[in-house]
Specification:
The complex is a heterodimer of chains A (about 675) and B (about 325).
Chain A: E1 7-12, H1 24-31, E2 37-43, H2 49-62, E3 66-71, H3 74-87, E4 95-99, H4 101-105, H5 111-129, E5 139-141, E6 145-149, H6 153-164, E7 168-172, E8 187-188, E9 193-194, H7 195-208, E10 212-215, E11 218-226, E12 229-236, H8 251-255, E13 262-263, E14 272-273, E15 276-277, E16 289-290, H9 296-300, H10 308-312, E17 325-331, E18 333-336, E19 340-342, E20 359-361, H11 362-369, E21 404-411, H12 427-441, E22 446-451, H13 461-470, E23 474-477, E24 482-486, E25 489-496, E26 501-507, E27 509-514, E28 516-518, H14 522-529, E29 556-558, H15 568-588, E30 590-592, E31 598-600, H16 610-614, E32 620-627, E33 630-637, H17 647-651, E34 657-659, H18 664-674
Parallel strand pairs in A: 1-2, 1-3, 3-4, 6-7, 6-18, 7-10, 18-29, 20-27, 21-22, 21-27, 22-23
Antiparallel strand pairs in A: 5-30, 8-9, 11-12, 12-17, 13-14, 15-16, 19-28, 24-25, 25-26, 31-34, 32-33
Helix pairs in contact in A: 1-5, 2-3, 5-18, 6-7, 6-15, 11-12, 12-13
Chain B: H1 4-16, E1 20-28, E2 35-40, E3 49-50, H2 61-65, E4 81-86, H3 88-99, E5 108-112, H4 121-127, E6 136-140, E7 143-148, E8 151-156, H5 157-160, H6 163-166, E9 178-179, H7 193-199, H8 203-216, H9 222-226, H10 251-265, H11 274-278, H12 285-300
Parallel strand pairs in B: 1-4, 4-5, 5-9
Antiparallel strand pairs in B: 1-2, 1-3, 6-7, 7-8
Helix pairs in contact in B: 7-12, 8-10, 10-12
The chains are: A alpha/beta (about 675), B alpha/beta (about 325).
Chain lengths: ~675, ~325
């Protein structure tokens, strides 16, 4: 096959996309005069069945061994025509595309000049085609196991789907319990399903599923390898409680000297816990954890005469000597489902969050209305950070109930001043839901919502918004400028933009409908997996429309809010999508890897390692070898990891890295053909 | 001034070490005032070593220039360290080479020479032509003292000092294991007046200027061979497939060669001036390198060869890098 090049050139009209500007006949005429071109043709749609048949027929008839298709961007149809070559019996990498659409007909108006340019582009492609080499498409085996990072609703759903399909799942969760943010919610919009009732059965399932190995209070420390063969190292942090012995009875937590003195993260700091704790009664696994920063025994070395928890534990589960454990395993695919943080309302100082006790975030309010929350679901005025002085025999004063509650939407969303241009997609509806719950629990409470726009785009959303308004919740269009205190009351200063009236609205409690933001620790995952971020800093999918759960790293998928704000149904849908995407390589057992990879000339590489630093896929490493008996370091490319981006080839100071199909010997003549004549 | 006895004593100590195989320093040249590199492998040879304002060569070049012959079968490669004497400017070549991971710091022993300036040998020979017997140059205060054929001549330092020394920001080496003398305080600074002069010319004037200079080039590649930063295993000029540049000596290929070399040194040239010193046809190569040097300093606040830990400037980028100069 590698004898004299026999090139076929196929010029596409692309309907009128190309032929409307470029004189394709003339380009074909010109192409047929170029050295080694055996046949040149044009056709209205080269990518269509008859178009592709022209190519396969010519391969047979003329014995073509190189094909140039002059049409659109290779991004569009390179895979199509590679398949054409393959079905014609040629190595698919003997294809060269000349982009005369995006780079010619679409950007030029003068037909004569555009035709000239098209000829040059075709000539350059022909020159390069003569120097193309056959490349092998390699396959690697896929380990039938999946690592899922994050056990919120998205991670849980993906884990269950994959495990049910018969593959092994390692589900790693940073906090002591699975469930994520959904476990904190009371009801879900717009159906008002009880969040716990629909979530907790799934939490139990992931813990009990024979194919799922659940690792809570654990963190992924290292990931190396590539699709099909990732090596994972997980640190299981010590809980100082023996997981096998703990029965979850709670006797330890009751007696902890720190009980009720540490803000409980799960309750957003509204409720309190001790140093040994279960985040919430339905936590999975139902095992206690000692928070070593706050435990008197672990932080100060002394807890009274002896630690009370240890004395109280009948199962003898508490062991202060327990160490972190490192677990290593191999997986074929990875799903990232690390979720989100809520916007830090302190970044909007005009709303006085953190200044006044009764300015809450929506998530705090969520815990307040939650039947399993710190107040048992009673909405009460908060007295934060105040130690209740209870004198002997004196009954504690019952907490006050707010007579009016005001919500402010879009706190930290659609707000360039805090750098978040995007809509968080859930706040309009959760605000409506919380307003409904407030009305439900305190019927005479006056509920007001300040909004910019109400976006009720989902199934049943508009109907729910209507219902809430009918229940007497007052919507005022306007973004408040300030919150201050007047006497006992909070005053929200705003302008009703529908009537252009400035107003000062007095209220007992303000709830800030904070948006969703990328997790503050999302850098950890980026460093582990070399993920990209979109401009809003959520993880970037491979294609916004057609590959929404894939990432640029093969075998790594995204589920849930880590990719962008979503409500529960969307997060679950994406999790199911990610699960099915992850199962494709696992089910087929093999994956094809990129053939246009980089190669290192080890004879000239001097091991500076700049290629290692620039490689976004961690595909290059320095290895020790010898050259003429002298020890040297050289770069070596892991072809299964290499995506053929070419960054290394550009960074190499000594020109020792070349990318297949884009080698200097292939590109230079191409540039020469495009040069001044 | 470095005391030669002390220099030899330290050198003797270094070359006697088990883990050092060679010491690269200076010795008297064969004629005139010249000094030349000395490659010392045993304590007996140490008495050849000198240091004087005639020691102009940048010895850092030899660390990467050394040809590594294949190790005969059954033998182990000699991996002992190489010791090298460096002036302030030369030391920056070491720093830049290490920044580019040419070798590791522990592979070398650096004898640092705090430098008060070296002569421009062309100026010396113009002033004292036809001195063939061995002569000596020393610095006494602000005068160079030249002794030859029983004569002794004093010349104001200014008149024979190399141009690069007149704008030297780093007279004391930036990297060393042992300093051979007290550190020297900076006695000059770089105001880029020469570059500013060049920048003032029109494109046509510049082209006419460089066309004349490049047309003289005989492609001897001395500038490449002497450059401490030209140390690829396989130079782009030697490659035939693809052949980036033809070997023909004409204005087109000569120009391509010098522009390519200047670009390869952008953000890497450490201003030792060796290329211009060795050019047999007097092409002012440092004018090209210094233009890049000034641009890099202004655009990125970066001086090559001053921080071995910094990433090489043009192999990295920052999101907030300046880009207003991009057309």
């Amino acid at each position: 096959m590698n004898g004299k090049p026999k090139i076929g050139v196929y010029v596409c009209h692309c309907g009128t996309n190309i032929a409307g500007v470029v004189n394709v006949e003339e380009v074909v005429q010109f192409a047929s005069t170029l050295p080694d071109v055996v046949v040149a043709r044009n056709y209205s749609y080269m990518c269509s069945d008859p178009g592709q048949a022209l190519i396969t027929d010519d391969i047979e008839k003329y014995g073509l061994n190189r094909v140039v298709v002059a049409s659109c961007s290779p991004r569009m149809h390179e895979p199509t025509f590679r398949k054409t070559l393959l079905s014609g019996g040629l190595n698919p990498y003997f294809l060269e595309m000349a982009n005369i659409r995006e780079q010619c007909s679409w950007v030029h108006e003068d037909p004569i000049a555009a035709t000239q340019k098209a000829k040059r582009i075709v000539e350059a492609a022909v020159v390069k085609a003569r120097r193309l080499e056959a490349l092998d498409v390699k396959e690697v085996d896929v380990e039938p196991a999946c690592l899922i990072i994050g056990a919120g609703i998205a991670g849980i759903q993906a884990a269950l789907d994959i495990a049910d399909a018969g593959f092994k799942v390692y589900l790693v969760e940073k906090s002591p319990t699975v469930g994520g943010h959904m476990a904190q919610l009371d009801k879900t919009f717009p159906t008002l399903d009880c969040s716990a009732c629909i979530l907790t059965p799934k939490m139990v399932d992931v813990a009990n599923h024979p194919n799922i190995e659940l690792m809570t209070y654990s963190q992924v420390e290292e990931i190396s390898g590539y699709i099909g063969n990732f090596d994972v190292k997980v640190r299981k942090k010590s809980r100082f409680v023996d997981m096998d012995k703990c029965t979850g009875c709670g006797a330890c937590a009751d007696v902890c000297r720190m009980a009720g003195r540490i803000p409980n993260e799960f309750d957003e700091g509204i409720g309190m816990r001790g140093a040994i704790y279960l985040p919430f009664p339905q936590a999975v696994p139902a095992k206690y954890t000692i928070d070593k920063e706050n435990c008197l025994f672990l932080s100060k070395g002394k807890c009274g005469e002896s630690p009370r928890c240890k004395d109280a534990c009948q199962a003898d589960a508490i062991n202060f000597d327990l160490q972190d454990e490192i677990v290593e395993f191999k997986v074929g695919t990875i799903i990232v489902a690390t979720g989100y943080d809520v916007f830090d309302a302190r970044k909007k100082p005009e709303y006085a969050y953190g200044v006044y006790d009764n300015v809450l975030t929506a998530l705090e309010f969520e815990r307040l209305v939650n039947a399993s929350g710190p107040t048992g679901g009673k909405i009460v005025m908060l007295e934060r950070g105040k130690k209740k002085k209870k004198k002997e025999g004196e009954e504690a004063e019952p907490p006050k109930v707010p007579k009016s509650i005001t919500f402010i939407q879009c706190v930290g969303s659609r707000d360039k001043s805090v750098g978040n241009e995007y809509c968080s997609r859930v706040c309009c509806m959760y605000t409506a839901k919380l307003a409904h719950l407030a009305k439900d629990k305190i019927p005479d409470c006056e509920v007001t919502i300040f909004y910019m726009d109400v976006r009720a785009f989902g199934k049943g959303f508009e109907e729910f918004y209507d219902r809430v308004r009918r229940e007497g919740v007052r919507y005022i269009r306007g973004n408040p400028s300030e919150i201050f205190k007047r006497g006992d009351k909070l005053v929200v200063k705003a302008e009703d933009t529908l009537t252009t009236t400035p107003l000062e609205h007095e209220t007992d409690m303000v709830v800030l409908s904070v948006g969703l933001v990328p997790r503050s620790d999302n850098r950890e995952i980026i460093d582990l997996l070399k993920l990209s971020q979109s401009s809003d800093l959520f993880y970037l999918e491979a294609h916004p429309k057609l590959r929404p759960v894939d990432t640029a790293s093969d075998g790594v998928f995204l589920a849930g809010v880590c990719q962008g704000p979503k409500d529960i149904p969307d997060a679950v849908a994406q999790a199911k999508g990610a699960a099915s995407a992850a199962m494709i390589p696992m089910a087929s057992g093999k994956v094809k890897v990129e053939a246009q990879t980089s190669e290192v000339n080890e004879a000239t590489c001097r091991g500076c390692g700049f290629c290692v630093a620039v490689c976004p896929f961690a595909a290059i490493e320095l290895v020790e070898t010898t050259r003429n008996g002298w020890p040297v370091k050289v770069a070596r490319v892991n072809e299964a990891l290499c995506k053929g981006c070419g960054a290394c080839a550009a960074a190499c100071l000594s020109g020792s890295i070349q990318q297949r199909s884009f080698k200097d010997v292939q590109i230079l003549p191409q540039i020469q053909a495009l040069g001044v004549k | 001034m470095v005391d030669v006895e002390r220099l030899r004593e330290i050198a003797r100590e270094v070359i006697s070490r088990d883990d050092v195989r060679q010491l690269i320093g200076y010795r008297q040249g064969t004629y005139g005032f010249r000094a030349r590199p000395a490659f010392i492998t045993s304590p007996e040879e140490v008495d050849q070593l000198i240091f004087s304002p005639a020691c102009v060569n940048n010895l850092a070049t030899y660390l990467t220039l050394e040809e590594k012959l294949p190790v005969p079968r059954g033998q182990e490669p000699d991996l002992r360290k190489v010791a090298v004497m460096v002036k302030g400017c030369d030391s920056r070549a070491l720093v830049q080479q290490m920044e580019e991971k040419a070798y590791e710091r522990e592979r070398i022993v650096v004898l640092g020479i705090p430098c008060t300036g070296v002569v421009d040998m062309d100026k010396v020979e113009k002033r004292f032509p036809d001195v063939l017997s061995r002569g000596e140059i020393t610095l006494e205060g602000d005068k160079f003292v030249l002794s030859f054929d029983g004569q002794r001549e004093e010349v104001p330092k200014e008149e024979l000092l190399a141009d690069k020394c007149k704008r030297c920001r780093y007279p004391t080496p930036l990297v060393y294991d042992q300093l051979l003398d007290e550190a020297v305080e900076r006695f000059a600074d770089d105001d880029y007046s020469d570059v500013l002069e060049l920048e003032k010319r029109s494109a046509e004037e510049k082209w006419a200027y460089w066309e004349e200079k490049f047309s003289r080039c005989i492609r001897c590649y001395s500038c490449r061979n002497v450059c401490p930063m030209c140390y690829c295993e396989d130079c782009v000029l030697d490659r035939l497939n693809p052949q980036w540049m033809r070997r023909s000596v004409d204005i087109s290929e000569n120009t391509a060669y010098h522009i390519a070399r200047a670009y390869h040194l952008a953000g890497r040239c450490i201003q030792c001036g060796e290329c211009q010193r060795v050019c047999p046809v007097e092409i002012p190569l440092m004018e090209l390198n210094r233009k890049f040097y000034k641009d890099v300093e202004e655009l990125y606040d970066y001086e090559p060869g001053t921080d071995a830990e910094a990433p090489p400037l043009l192999a990295t980028f920052k999101v907030d890098d300046r880009e207003d100069f991009i057309l």
